[in-house]
């Protein structure tokens, strides 16, 4: 049965091992666990030190793997950074997807997606520094992250229009607007200061998305 | 007479010369023109090369001023970068303010502000690279730029609620949501690709801000 909402798989899962450099995908569960450990360690290394100060040896030390294991899966520091951006993009998508699917109306879905996103950011504050640094270190990854995220939002808005939950004529502009809102709310209330609950923020935004801001 | 909408001056104007390092503010019109030329040249230098590759000599060459003139106004490359972020923040504010003030309803004001912002970005695409790089080069400037922009939006939303144009209860969350929308729409349709007019984008967003997205 096709999933009703937000269920379209777009690109590789964060868990399928395709993050490795070309020809280096792990073939065993153990290999996939090692790859996962390297990516998680890379998130901490680059999140703390940034790309230029971060090092492969810092990553392998944090991951508790030998330097040779790193090169089993990745060609270079650039390659693991590129893989990390794609992996984090996938992790956000996978973390938010169940809440999007479970909602019974697209406004509720957007609400739940934002709530889950802010909660995720609080547990993974490094995601901002890493994706933002991609603009300079690997512009193509940066672009890819936002282009695919916006396209995913556009697709789910169009489907909700078709189901009659949202009005007609929703476009890429709406998708970019919603993505921008979510990214900045995640920065402010996820990374900078946790002075409001994700629930309260999501409620506020859902009300705005539902009825707008004009006085009635 | 107090201005009706969006007229609150917040911080220094982009044109008052206060961009110079402490104790180095120009005292003559000629000095202010030189300072302006240095800031404009710095925008091009850092916009093209980034902070690390950009140089003071590159800035003075582009500005057509002597190296000594640079040090008349700035202490260092860090100082001119910091001043540039603040100056660009002020330029955006000053460019958008007249459109905000001229509108006869806050939805129309937000619409006009976004239209002007996208048009401004198309003429100053380097603003994204510079402000985004500030996150790494000078985090305090980065934070300051978004915190003051959000506060300015929050203030104008609250005033519009009071005038009865927008509903009550608008908060910092709404301000960050609107700022995020605008920043990402500027990135997509100002920097990446100019495949929609600023007018059309602003119309779409104004409709969303006015009535929301739910089917009626």
UniProtKB/TrEMBL annotation, chains A, B:
Domain HTH tetR-type, chain residue ranges per copy: 32-92
Composition bias type Low complexity, residue spans: 10-25
This protein's UniProt keywords: DNA-binding
Region (Disordered): 1-31
DNA-binding region coordinates: 55-74
Keyword Repressor assigned: no
Protein name: TetR/AcrR family transcriptional regulator
Organism the protein comes from: Stakelama saccharophila
């Amino acid at each position: 049965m096709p999933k009703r909402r937000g269920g379209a798989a777009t690109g590789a899962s964060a868990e399928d091992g395709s993050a490795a450099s070309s020809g280096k995908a792990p073939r065993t569960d153990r290999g996939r666990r090692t790859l996962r450990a390297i990516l998680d360690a890379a998130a901490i290394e680059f999140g703390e030190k940034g790309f230029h100060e971060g090092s492969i040896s810092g990553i392998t030390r944090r991951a508790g793997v030998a330097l040779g294991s790193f090169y089993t899966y990745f060609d270079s520091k650039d390659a693991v950074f590129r893989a990390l951006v794609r992996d984090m993009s996938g992790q956000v998508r996978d973390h938010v997807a169940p809440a999007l699917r479970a909602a019974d109306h697209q406004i509720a879905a957007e609400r739940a997606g934002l709530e889950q996103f802010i909660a995720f950011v609080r547990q993974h504050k490094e995601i901002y520094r890493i994706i933002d640094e991609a603009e300079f270190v690997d512009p193509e990854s940066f672009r890819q992250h936002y282009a695919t995220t916006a396209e995913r939002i556009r697709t789910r808005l169009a489907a909700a229009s078709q189901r009659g939950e949202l009005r007609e004529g929703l476009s890429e502009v709406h998708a970019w607007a919603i993505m921008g809102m979510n990214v900045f709310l995640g920065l402010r209330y996820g990374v900078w200061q946790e002075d409001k609950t994700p629930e309260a923020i999501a409620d506020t935004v859902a009300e705005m998305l539902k009825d707008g801001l004009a006085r009635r």
